[in-house]
Every structure is written in C-alpha cells, then in structure tokens.
Amino acid sequence: MIDDDTSPEEKSKSQLKREASALQDLGEALVKLNASQFKAMPLPEHLRAAIVAARAITEHGAHKRQLQYIGKLMRDVDPAPIQKALDAFNNRSQQATTQFHQLERWRDRLLSEGDTALSEFLTEYPGADSQQIRQLLRNAAREAKASKPPAAARALFRYLREVSAVGGVEEEEGHQ
User: Fold this and answer.
1) Which among 17, 56, 111, 171 is placed 20 to 30 Å from 117, CA to CA?
2) What is the CATH number of the domain that holds 118?
3) Is residue 169 one of the residues assigned to a domain?
4) DSSP assigned state of 12
5) What whole-number distance in Å separates Cα of residue 61 and Cα of residue 66?
6) Cα–Cα distance between 100 and 12 in angstroms, integer?
7) How does DSSP classify residue 176?
8) What is the percentage of the chain residues whose pLDDT exceeds 90?
C-alpha cells in the first residue's frame, strides 16, 4: 500500500498540457516585450537566445515552432520570477494609462470650469504655479475662439503632467 502523504501526486495528461500551454503563452509574452523590458527580464542565456531568434523569424509556421521550443525551454526554468517581472511591467503600463486619463480630465475641467477646477487642482497639487496655468488657460481660450489648433491646451497638458510627476514623487517620499 502506498502512503499518500509521501508520494507525489501524478498529474493528468490534461494538466501537463495546460501547464505546457501556459509556459508557451508566457514565452510568447516575452517575445512581444519591447527592447528595454526584454533586457530587464531575469532569463537564462539559452532562453534569451531562443527569444531573440523568435523575434527574427517572420514566417508563421517557423515562428510557431520557435514559440513551442521556447515553451519547452521554459519547462526547465522557474517561471515565477519571470511572471512577476512581466506583471510589474503590465502594472506600470496600467498606472501610466490611468494617470494619463486623469490628467486629460484635469485639463478638460480646467478648460471648461475655470477657477473652481483650478482651486481644486491647486489643493491636490500645491506646487503648481497658478499664474502659469491661468496664462495657458487664457491662451487656450483665445485659440479656441479663433478656431486655431489647440497648442496652448497641449502645453497645459504637458505642464499638468510635469506638475503631477513632481507631486507624485513628493507624495511617495512622504509615505516612506
């Protein structure tokens, strides 16, 4: 009789296939990374070389075979640190998108609501220069009235992004 506590559980063929497919999907995600993200990934050299080769292959069938090979190589590697790094990249991307949309909303509010939105913005970002924002708002209103391209609105957005980047660093330092 076999003691269940000491023998490892046998994995079903379906479970093994699911795990192999997940590793291949992880490998495919690595192939799709941009250059700076790829350099930062904690990968063994043989896996890194296979991924570089996959990036160079343009023929569909050959590319698919290379992805399968990457999946096979991934079986000998601990995928946890790779997945963790990949999740960190995706999280940063989501945070950047969220911040971008928040700044767009601030710009639109400042352009439409004026001083009420400005006072709220200055409360949230006390380091912002109210005179510079007011000047950019006046220029944007002038451009809109003259049906000109929104150069001042773009400049306002750039300034808001600059202020939020500085304000975000100060907030992070305050929490530490």
Assistant:
1) 171
2) 1.10.60.30
3) yes
4) P
5) 9
6) 46
7) -
8) 16
| Residue pair 157/103 in contact by the 8 Å Cβ criterion | yes
Q: What is the DSSP letter of 114?
A: T
Mean pLDDT throughout 85-100? 82
Domain containing residue 26: 13-77
Rg (CA), the chain: 26
Is 19 inside a domain boundary?
A: yes
Place of tokens 């975000």: 168
DSSP 3-state assignment of 57?
Answer: coil
Question: Which segments of 79-150 does DSSP mark as H helices, in order?
Answer: 79-113, 115-124, 130-145
- Residue pLDDT, tens place only, 51-74: 999 999 989 999 999 999 998 998
**Do 10 and 2 form a contact (C-beta atoms < 8 A)?**
no
Q: Which two tokens stand for residue 39?
A: 């350099």
Angle among Cα 95, 135, 124 to the nearest 5 degrees reads 35
Under DSSP, the state recorded for 10 is P
| pLDDT higher than threshold 60 for residue 79 | yes
One domain for residues 71 and 114: no
Closest by Cα among 163, 101, 160 to 136: 160
Q: Can you tell me which residue has the tokens 């990249």?
A: 89
Stated pTM of the model: 0.50
